[in-house]
């Protein structure tokens, strides 16, 4: 019941500089019966100065009102995607450095540095067919806290192999890793093929 809402929410998106991306923002009104689009706006990430917080007032296109946002573009730290053959923990020297970094005597050096999670996404087996051809175009999305990374799409395959390694910084040991498989569907929203949730405390 507000025309001047304050959300004060923070979201982290992993933006890799080899891509030219536009941040699309939609504002919706919802009640028990229907949802109504109140406006959209777009931010060209490549046009923003890096390593600083940019305060933007964005007018909503074709609708009254505006959004006030703080957007910071900074180098990704602790997050990576790599092929299985160049796994970040595959180097014995790197493993030793990590063991030293998280040993008991260094526990209180940086309380925000809880640790990190490395996930190898190998393959899926016997997925549901989402297309009329009896196949699917599956990709896998990994979410930890408000961090999200995804694999590439393997087309026309019910037994896709991704063989990717994902590394996440851990901000809360009580977080849950959510792994969801979707079917890519062109310009339409992807179809849900399945999901698994893994509490970090169970690892």
UniProtKB/TrEMBL annotation:
Subcellular location per the Swiss-Prot or TrEMBL entry: Membrane
Family classification: Belongs to the MCTP family.
Membrane disposition: Multi-pass membrane protein
Name of the protein this chain belongs to: MCTP2 protein
UniProt keyword annotation of NAD present: no
InterPro entries found in the cross-reference section: C2_dom (IPR000008), C2_domain_sf (IPR035892)
Organism: Cisticola juncidis
Family matches, as SUPFAM superfamilies: C2 domain (Calcium/lipid-binding domain, CaLB) (SSF49562)
Any coiled-coil regions, as ranges: none
All residue ranges annotated as the C2 domain in the record: 1-58, 92-203
Superkingdom of the organism of origin: Eukaryota
Keywords: Calcium, Membrane, Metal-binding, Repeat, Transmembrane, Transmembrane helix
Annotated GO CC locations: synaptic vesicle membrane
UniProt-recorded Gene Ontology molecular function terms: calcium ion binding
Main location (coarse class): membrane
Biological process annotations from GO: regulation of neurotransmitter secretion
Annotated Gene3D superfamilies: C2 domain
């Amino acid at each position: 019941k507000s025309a001047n809402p304050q959300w004060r929410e923070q979201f982290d998106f992993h933006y890799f500089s080899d891509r030219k991306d536009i941040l699309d923002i939609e504002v919706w009104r919802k009640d028990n019966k229907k949802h109504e689009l109140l406006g959209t706006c777009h931010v060209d990430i490549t046009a923003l100065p890096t390593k600083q917080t940019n305060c933007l007032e964005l007018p909503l296109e074709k609708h009254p009102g505006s959004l006030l946002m703080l957007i910071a573009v900074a180098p990704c730290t602790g997050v990576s995607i790599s092929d299985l053959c160049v796994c970040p923990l595959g180097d014995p020297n790197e493993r030793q450095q990590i063991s030293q970094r998280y040993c008991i005597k260094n526990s209180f050096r940086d309380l925000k540095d809880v640790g990190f999670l490395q996930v190898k996404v190998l393959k899926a087996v016997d997925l549901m067919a989402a297309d009329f051809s009896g196949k699917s175009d599956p990709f896998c999305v990994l979410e930890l806290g408000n961090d999200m990374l995804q694999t590439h799409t393997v087309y026309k395959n019910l037994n896709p192999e991704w063989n990717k390694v994902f590394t996440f910084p851990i901000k809360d040991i009580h977080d849950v890793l959510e792994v969801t498989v979707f079917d890519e569907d062109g310009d339409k929203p992807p179809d849900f093929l399945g999901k698994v949730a893994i509490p970090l405390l169970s690892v």
